[in-house]
Amino acid sequence: MKIKIREANESDLDFLLCLEKESFEEFQQNSKKSIQYGIKSKFQEIFITEIASKRNSAIGSFVLFKYPKSLRIYSIALLKDFQSKGIGNQMLDFIKARALKNGYLKIILEVDAGNSDLTEWYQSRGFQITGYKKDYYRPGKHALTMEFNVVISKEEEINNIIVINKPFKWDYPINAKVISVKEYINNPVYQNTSDFRIFNLCSSYKYQSYGYYVSLLASARGQRVIPNITTIRDFKINHVIQSAANDIDRLINNLLNKNTSNVFSLNIYFGQTTDKKYEVLAMKLYQLFEAPLFKVEFIKHDSWLIKSINTLTLSSIPESEKELLYQLASNYFNRKRYNFAKLINYKYDLAVLVNPKEKNPPSNQEALQKIKNVGNKKGVYVEFITKEDADKINEFDALFIRETTNVNHHTYELSRLAYAEGLVVIDDPWSILRCSNKIYQNELFRKHKILTPNTVALTKNFSRKKMLDQFQYPMILKQPDSAFSLGVKKVENKEEAETELMKLFKKSDMVICQEFLYSEFDWRIGVLDNKPLFACKYFMSKNHWQIYDWNSDDEEKSGDAETLPIQNVPENIIKTAVKASSLIGDGLYGVDLKLVDGKVYVVEVNDNPNIDFGVEDMISKDALYEQLIDSFINRIETARNISKINFINK
């Protein structure tokens, strides 16, 4: 029987009183006053169980007491006509899901020691007897205490759910639970937690079909779903497909150019394909168009283009590929998972990407440990990962990149992959793209009238000698993607400029030529969520014009740093930094500025700014890390709420 469970209110009072009389002996029954108190109490929760298909059809209830680490079942009752129909199991599943969602370590209860049937039922549902209370209910009426451990071992936990019209047709063992559409829609277990990852394999995704509603409901429940409603809609809009595929146009043509035919199709099963030659292409397409099963059709005109993308259903897979499909699905769901056992149920999981071999990482070990400790205190499990852990990125809610980023680098690829998997990402791929290119920033700041050092973008085939005569020296030459003072040269005259440009043009078709502005230090304003996070003065390296002097023989290659309270920083510095970073996005940025002759110049906006223990956190201490973790929590919850609103509106 299909049920629904809701919180009780004052209108349920008469039913609850009748249920008490039918279910419990007189000495155990709650009074009207105590029930009224329970409905209003913040310590108690009273729930009503109803028949799903009928209004005002209450058939049972249960009362929960909320302790700091335990959820106690104070009472659970069901009308006699509805007992022995599996409804009690569904009610208990709801309680377990609620305990898991809200971070309780265990569920506790007391049961009549003389009621062996009830005791055995609880035992069959995973409860263990933990004690004996003599005369608990009244003299001669004893109780057993029982306990259910909410912490599930990773071997037992199945968060991956395949939803399909006819589950019996999936006859292959897999590390995912296969359920019917109706069970997913109606079972309270799947209604009350966002921890599930839903793979929608319904026979149709048409508007208002079962497949459509599975993706719609999963999004409303805050669950990750593949495909989501946006993906389903995108498949029908050709220009959206073409725009999204621009990033992999070169890969498509490199792989398909040897084909003699002008048409080609590729079936993609859980990000994989049956032909190993196209494995990389299949994964890239899956990252762009996330669906469990889909077919991509290509056509060649002057070059290869995607003609169409269509989702596949289990019944549409050729029989010759069915066995291979099951094997690819098994590979997907058996990918490396967490290698730890969490002793506490955290609300969210944050992956922090690090490179243990990096000599100058964005955060030192002490800062990383601060991120972990503060995250744990706020209910966020923090795990440090490396690029080798890319295959388990979908197990997290968010990714924080603490390795130096670059576009042509695994940091960008992992950021893009995490975004495609639905994670909150800092640094997001767009921030990496925008911050890594100084040409883009120069155009952006000029358009929005933000003062920068005079800057010209030089192209490889320009008339250098004539143009260089017009510049003032000394002058700065930069690779467009320079970072940490690398790829940046100071030239004193035209001859030096020509020599350095020849070197730089071997690496890039464009080079930045920028006015040299001397200052004793650069301001670095850390910005997060378009608000200042920290403020530092970075002083130039000893006897050098840059903050970093990579040619120095000294072990310490950077200059000193001084951290200031944000309120002590000139207002025009803060305002300019926030304005400049807001043009890039709302992530985490380090804005470098110079204050020269009373004017504020933006040198550049950097993604992935340094946050080191003892430097950037010198003033705000743990509050800086709390602000970081709060940002991740807010972004995760906002993203889920926006999904709910958007899909409800549609």
Summarize the structure in words.
The protein is of the alpha/beta class. The chain folds into five domains: 3-149, Gcn5-related N-acetyltransferase (GNAT) (Aminopeptidase, 3-Layer(aba) Sandwich); 160-231, Glucose-6-phosphate isomerase like protein, domain 1 (Rossmann fold); 235-333, D-amino Acid Aminotransferase, Chain A, domain 1 (2-Layer Sandwich), CATH 3.30.470; 348-427 and 631-636, 3-Layer(aba) Sandwich (Rossmann fold), CATH 3.40.50; 454-515, Dna Ligase, domain 1. The protein is 31% helix and 28% strand. The strands form six sheets. A seven-stranded mixed sheet has the order 1-2-3-4-5-7-6, with helices on both faces. A five-stranded antiparallel sheet has the order 25-24-23-26-27. Strands 9-8-10-11 form a four-stranded parallel sheet. Helix 3 links the parallel strand 4 and strand 5 (106-112).
